Amino acid sequence: MGAAQLVSLFLALAAAAARAVSAAGARPSEVAVGALFTYDSVIGRAARVAVELAIDDVNADGTVLAGTKLSLKSHDTNCSAFIGTVEALQLMEENVVAVIGPQSSGIGHVISHVANELHVPLLSFAATDPDLSALEYPYFLRTTTSDYFQMNAIASIVDYYQWKRVTAIFVDDDYGRGGVSTLGDALAAKRATISYKAAIPPNSNSDVINDVLFRANMMESRVMVVHVNPDTGMRIFSTANKLQMMASGYVWIVTDWLAAVLDSSASRDLKDMSHIQGLIVLRQHTPESDAKNKFISKWNTVARNRSVISGLNSYGLYAYDTVWTVAHAIDQFLNSGQQINFSTDPRLHDSSGSTLRLSTLKVFDGGEQMLQQLLLTNFTGVTGLVQFGSDRNLVHPAYDILNVGGSVSRLIGYWSNYSGLSVAAPEILYQKPPNSSAQQLDNVVWPGDSTTIPKGWVFPNNGQPLRVGVPNKASFKELVSSGGPGNVTGYCIDVFNAAIKLLPYPVPLQFITIGDGKKNPIYIGIVRMVANNSLDAAVGDFAIVRNGTALAEYTQPYVEAGLVIVAPVKQVTPSAWAFLKPFTLEMWCVTGALFILVGVVVWLLEHRINEEFRGSPRQQVATIFWFSFSTMFYSHRENTVSALGRFVLIIWLFVVLIITSSYTASLTSILTVQQLDTGITGLDSLISSSLPIGYQNGKFTKRYLTLELNIPESRLVALNTIQDYADALNRGPKNGGVAVIVDEKPYVDIFLSHYCNFRIVGQQFTREGWGFSFQRDSPLAEDMSTAILQLSESGQLQRIHDEWFKRPSCAYDDDSQVGATRLGIGSFSGLFLMCALICLFALVVFFVRICWQYNQYSNSDAEDEPGAADADVVQRRPSRLGSFKGLLQFVDKKEEEIRRKMKRRSSDKAAGSSDALSVSSAY
């Protein structure tokens, strides 16, 4: 090969390489996008025009896909999952980079597997089944709001009006089942539930719909949630109207399919509108904007030119934005240098003789990169912000809440995942901190043209009476008594029947007795039967306790109850010395000694200055005893004149008041009350003792004593009848009986009305009540609570009580008449100590003063020189004035005499000094 040939070959290879590089970097002139929806449907008619307009707008916009044309490959699924699957496979043969659709959730479940294999993203503007968001379908992307949020919006409405049970009417396909399953979860979070699921088979005729609605109408809930397809849903309301299910008392909440139907109806059919009055309807919220209004105007113009019989709905808006989402993603895909290439999957080959042509299906090599670009979408379209969150759902999901009235639907509020129910638009609330507590909706006109919020529940008209369990007890027949199947009587039964009559709806009853009448049944076991749906209610003397409320729903208490202690008592035998029993021997001795002490102290304080406390020794001793004991009756005739004496007397009179009052009260109690036969006087002594305790078999008392008070089970003795109570208490612990019985106060009141030798000791130590038990979240529990309050307010509850409980005269209500005790010194030790200290203080002050006076008196006496005239006085003066005997003689003198003598000596001393001074002057 010559040099020229080599150069030519090199230049040719270089040119080929240059052309290859140029071709690799060039943008394609056209990109195919697929579309799957049902042309002749409420959603499809609006979406078809919207998608075609979006394709034209994208191709006319130079800022997106510059130099690349977006072409549309559209296929009609014809409302069939099978045809939709076939059409999807045919669409994949045309090398589309993305598919707008499918419209149906059922088709979405099927072809999502195809999309996974071929790596072609699906962008559905109408398949709202929440299950399509599963990780099983990575190439499925929803460009509309998921029913997950719509069902949470419905749950918020149900909770707002405080309904607890709803009936779900739904189409029995993937779309209906997925939505209702999500609704159940959303209601459970609001403590509500779906009480009945009315499934309508797809493509059902009017007879099938009639049968489904008839069964739903037999159930208790009057809150109907309708989640069906737009093209067949209107037949539900015409059938419901014939069944009189659109009357007052019903609630109809309809998902967004009905809003699509109403928005798509170019001219309102007055006949159809009359069937949907009072409905609450949800619609996907799209904020108002110039772009939205411009698009609506353009859509209406095109629809008129094409003679489209349907109007634009929210799904058409989402279909329009879906095309723009795909366009933005393709633009970013191509700008990143990616190429649109398809390759053959070796696993897809035609079997021998097969005409399916599976080999024509190609895998989109850039499918993963295209999906990532789609998830990064962020622009503002006609539906508002188009952006996907971490859960692959559109951000800021929101719904309009409409109320159908007349020929229009009225906006009554909004729901958003940001702040719940509100009357302000969600885009306004997005600018504020979230506040889910301020839930609000405008007033609603309900079915039957009623403005009163429906109760949402009636007793089911399904021919099944309310199964009411009643304990068949061995005793306390006044409360509950069974005379045979269905024949039950008693106070509790009368209260229940009276409350049932106050309900605004009839409730057929079937009483079912539990127990053989010989042994009390286990009450918590009956409540478990209610929780397990073996019974609908439990009626009787059921205490509202913690483990019971965990299983069932209780009504308002109709009886106040609580545990009390019953003990045997004995009557005190009259005694001639009963007046000595209020005080113990020590108390009598200390009291007598204190009387004498106070008499002596007052005598000492008053003796020198009070003539009434002087006299012969015999008279003074008599005065001491008379004065001290007469203060007990406040009849002492001696007056006290000294300050210390009066101070001691005031304190002593207070002490006497306390002593006499206590004595009187204790003596009255001893002479009139009964005495306990055991040492148990209350809850503390019950716990600390080791004596056996009786309790009523079947009730919660045993559980409370063992778990709450930690009393050993070996101390507890189960009893059934009133006679068992009396026998066990009369035998006592030493003879195989019990020391006390712990039971609820209503039982104890009945027991004490028959036996007068037992009494309640201590205080009631629990607080509970008796109520009727129903299944969890049963509306009957709330209505019965209201009825019980009406009975109480009207006084009928008390009248029923008085009819059953006419207590004989031996039953006393004064619990203070049990257990009188003698008063000991310990009860008055502080009082006695105070009195003794006051007396001691007065004596100390008195003797200090006496010693000071005696000292002054002795000094003045020593300085006085006696004269001849005073010889007789000197003869009578003691040899030692400072002796103890002299001190006693000084104390015995009157204070007035001492003062007079000391004053005279002072005068004599002054006169002597004056005479001496005169004599000295004379000399």
TrEMBL record:
Disulfide bond as UniProt keyword: yes
Range of residues in the leader sequence: 1-20
Lineage: Eukaryota, Viridiplantae, Streptophyta, Embryophyta, Tracheophyta
Membrane topology: Multi-pass membrane protein
SMART domains for the chain: PBPe
Keywords, sorted A to Z: Disulfide bond, Glycoprotein, Ion channel, Ion transport, Ligand-gated ion channel, Membrane, Receptor, Signal, Transmembrane, Transmembrane helix, Transport
SS bond list: C756-C810
UniProt cross-references to Pfam families, sorted A to Z: ANF_receptor, Lig_chan
Record function comment: Glutamate-gated receptor that probably acts as non-selective cation channel.
Disordered: annotated segments: 899-923
Coiled-coil spans in chain: none
Protein family membership: Belongs to the glutamate-gated ion channel (TC 1.A.10.1) family.
One GO biological process term: monoatomic ion transmembrane transport
InterPro entries assigned to the protein according to its UniProt record, in alphabetical order: ANF_lig-bd_rcpt (IPR001828), GABAb_receptor_plant_PBP1 (IPR044440), Ionotropic_Glu_rcpt (IPR015683), Iontro_rcpt_C (IPR001320), Iontropic_Glu_rcpt_pln (IPR017103), Peripla_BP_I (IPR028082)
Listed PANTHER family: IONOTROPIC GLUTAMATE RECEPTOR
Keyword check for Membrane: yes
Name of this protein: Glutamate receptor
Ionotropic glutamate receptor C-terminal domain ranges (all copies): 467-807
Subcellular localization(s) per the UniProt record: Membrane
Transmembrane segments annotated in the record for this chain: 585-605, 647-665, 831-850
Predominant place of localization: membrane
Entry GO terms, CC: membrane
Domain of life: Eukaryota
